[in-house]
Amino acid sequence: MTLMQGWKRTVVVVVSGALVVATGATWVVMDLNTAAQAASVIACVTGIAVMLFTLLHTPDASPEATRRAVRTGEATVTGDGRANTGVASTTAGHAEDTGDAKGFGGKANTGVTDGL
Fold this sequence. Notes:
Elements lengths: L6 H23 L2 H25 L6 H4 L1 E3 L4 E4 L3 E3 L2 E3 L4 E3 L4 E4 L2 E3 L2 E3 L2
Parallel strand pairs: 1-5, 2-6, 3-7, 4-8
């Protein structure tokens, strides 16, 4: 899971802080009932905006993007087993700077192979 970084994190923090201050200011200047109504409208609009942002900015979920092996360790197999330090899949993948896979009677893979 990748956490939000950079300018997106800054925008979320600044906008969230501004909304909290606006709700508090409404409560101080007006009354608690008006502040509650403003907070519910702000929450509704924010929820819709987040939902739209998520739907429109979902990362590519193609198999090429999800099947990836980078800087893996070592694997050893004996008998009829399989050792894999790359990507073993029926769909495309990407392997980069993979570790050693040693096979003593089994199948060893350090890159991308068809099959599991």
